[in-house]
């Protein structure tokens, strides 16, 4: 899981945006307007990078050396605290700019983070649509089937982190559209 | 003596002639002509220089500023303050008879008679002028009407605008000049009526007598002129004492004898009517003649120092060292037509007469002739009297200066003497404003003068301080350079310097003090703005995108250009590094630049974080967020 981005199916290399090769991009800007723009660009870069590599969560300490935060051609890198500040900003609600695109898994320690390039609510909607379209209402599916099964190969969430999937399914549970049961590691889900 | 127009520097101080030095400055000074205040000239700075007394009003200084040449001053008098009346220094012009004597001594040559100083007095061609004054429909009011103050018995003049036929209780009455108490209206009325009654009989005969005395020297020469003057003695209008004709004031009672004096009368009468424009009435007194005397009224002290220094300057006669009042071009036809002599140049202030339009060899010859005539005139003028001879002997004047100082003419006590020596050495070192030079007006005047001084120093094109520094320099640098230019004497303290710089805005001077975010104080031209700096920075950035960097860079320089450091900016714009850093941060603050911190230090880039490098206009692409 830690190095999940290495094992993921990256058939072609990630295309970094032009700002990635702009040296000041790696220095926190003191000007408020510039800083906001910088944070937005970092947020969108992290999201698209994670989406490309099908990453749902990562450890900051390990990822800080990855090409995402370390531009080897420029020999520029984001410091750990700067990266943490960016994730912090991403974790903020929509009105503060971040749009809850990230979430610290270990709370105050701030070492592990979710990157919600799709938020749980958005995943929930997509899964529900898929269930509807494939006529699997009232059918019991295991979470493993959902994420790793052959039937979902073509779906965007294929290979999704189990915890992330459970978070998304919980949204549906709250809406009364699904029911999750079973013990840990062997969860099943039934859609209504 | 004339009120001359005054050129002001950018800092609204009088611009000094070469060799001219500033001796004293005093604020809150008012100007009087004779006994009357001159409107619009009641609150200003008096500048005493080695050549002139200048007056610059606080409001509208460009409009209301005049100067009087010291060389035209006969004597000065000091008048202490009394009750409501402020202390004054009275300046008397050289009497007109001096000019007459001078012209006589030059002999009979008609070209000599066109001495420039004489032309200015307009008394040179008295014959036509006298006839003009005779045909004038309304003769001016008599000046010799006086009223006696019932309190202190001082005899005051009745104001010229006082008309006994229209005066009522509500008419404003000037207070007594000595004690400042207003007289009852009846006193004034009586005085005016008596004067009017006595004038009726005398005016015609006086004018006729004037005509006689003036015509005689023209036709018969010097000897008969003096005899005619002796015969034509003047009775005093107040006490009837028969005075010598050359006296301007009654020997017994001191009443002015102007109406009967041979030259004062006609020139005075003629003056107002023939003046090309009614300047005085409009509140502009430039180029008007001072007939009686002018007074400087000191509302905030400083009169004693000015008086002393003025006396000193009159003794030293520094203007003799100054060869510059360019020898006026001699109008060619002036000898034949007297009307031209009236419009003749006043010491080169009015434009030179148009050059004659002859062409070819004739023109060259004519010009050569003119030059020769001019040279002849200069030589003749130089040997005219001792004063002019002295102009060619700087040493003599220098000697006179030293003597004056040693004998203590300029200063009564020791302290003043030492300060005079100090001032002189200060002048020699090219300093302008010193604390010693300013009157008791105190700190504020010192600061405002220092402020003007600094502004002048900065904008002086000869030194080009600001240009050298790229139009902006830190206040500390200015302070250092300015003090260095003072050669270690009369240094300005840092706090004085800052306070003076803070006054620039108030005094509307062409430089301004600016405080950067970090608190750094810099000095800039008034019209310099952040926008201008930003535009220059942007141009530079654009240039960097066009020209490939010296070393290969890992980023796309077509897109991003190159980073600049404060040092580079300082070098390019000739700023100091501190200023450059501040300017770059200012541009960053405005969102034009963004920073990169690296091992090379802090460097700045064009802000491609907010703006899109592809679009030149710098459109913000926040929309990239919605990539999913």
TrEMBL record, chain A:
Q: Which GO terms describe its biological process?
A: macroautophagy; protein transport to vacuole involved in ubiquitin-dependent protein catabolic process via the multivesicular body sorting pathway
Query: What keywords are annotated for this sequence in UniProt?
Result: Cytoplasm, Protein transport, Transport
Q: Which Pfam families match?
A: ESCRT-II
Tell me, what is one Gene Ontology molecular-function annotation carried by this entry? protein homodimerization activity
Gene3D superfamilies attached to this UniProt entry: Winged helix' DNA-binding domain. Chain C. Domain 1, Winged helix-like DNA-binding domain superfamily/Winged helix DNA-binding domain
Q: What is its main location?
A: cytoplasm
Cellular component terms (Gene Ontology): ESCRT II complex
Q: Where in the cell is it found?
A: Cytoplasm
Keyword Oxidoreductase (UniProt): no
SUPFAM superfamilies tied to this protein:
Winged helix' DNA-binding domain
Similarity annotation:
Belongs to the VPS25 family.
Protein's UniProt name: Vacuolar protein-sorting-associated protein 25
**What organism does the record attribute this protein to?**
Aspergillus nanangensis
UniProtKB/TrEMBL annotation, chain B:
Entries under SUPFAM superfamilies matching the protein = PH domain-like, Ran binding protein zinc finger-like, Winged helix' DNA-binding domain
**In Gene Ontology terms, what is a biological process of this protein?**
protein transport to vacuole involved in ubiquitin-dependent protein catabolic process via the multivesicular body sorting pathway
Under the heading InterPro entries, the entry gives: GLUE_dom, PH-like_dom_sf, Snf8/Vps36, Vps36, Vps36-NZF-N, WH-like_DNA-bd_sf, WH_DNA-bd_sf, Znf_RanBP2
The region called Disordered is annotated at 93-136, 261-284
Entry keyword set: Coiled coil, Cytoplasm, Endosome, Metal-binding, Protein transport, Transport, Zinc, Zinc-finger
Q: Which SMART domains match?
A: ZnF_RBZ (SM00547)
Task: Give one Pfam hit by family name.
Answer: Vps36_ESCRT-II
From the Swiss-Prot or TrEMBL record, what is one GO molecular function term?
phosphatidylinositol-3-phosphate binding
User: Where in the sequence does UniProt note compositional bias of the Polar residues kind?
Assistant: 103-136
The compartments listed are: Cytoplasm; Endosome
Q: Does the keyword Chloroplast apply?
A: no
User: What's an example GO cellular component term for this entry?
Assistant: late endosome membrane
Start and end of every GLUE N-terminal domain?
A: 6-326
Q: Which family does it belong to?
A: Belongs to the VPS36 family.
> Quaternary form?
Component of the endosomal sorting complex required for transport II (ESCRT-II).
**What role is this protein assigned?**
Component of the ESCRT-II complex (endosomal sorting complex required for transport II), which is required for multivesicular body (MVB) formation and sorting of endosomal cargo proteins into MVBs.
Question: In its UniProt entry, what is this protein called?
Answer: Vacuolar protein-sorting-associated protein 36
What species does this protein belong to? Aspergillus nanangensis
What broad taxonomic lineage does this protein's source fall under?
Eukaryota, Fungi, Dikarya, Ascomycota, Pezizomycotina
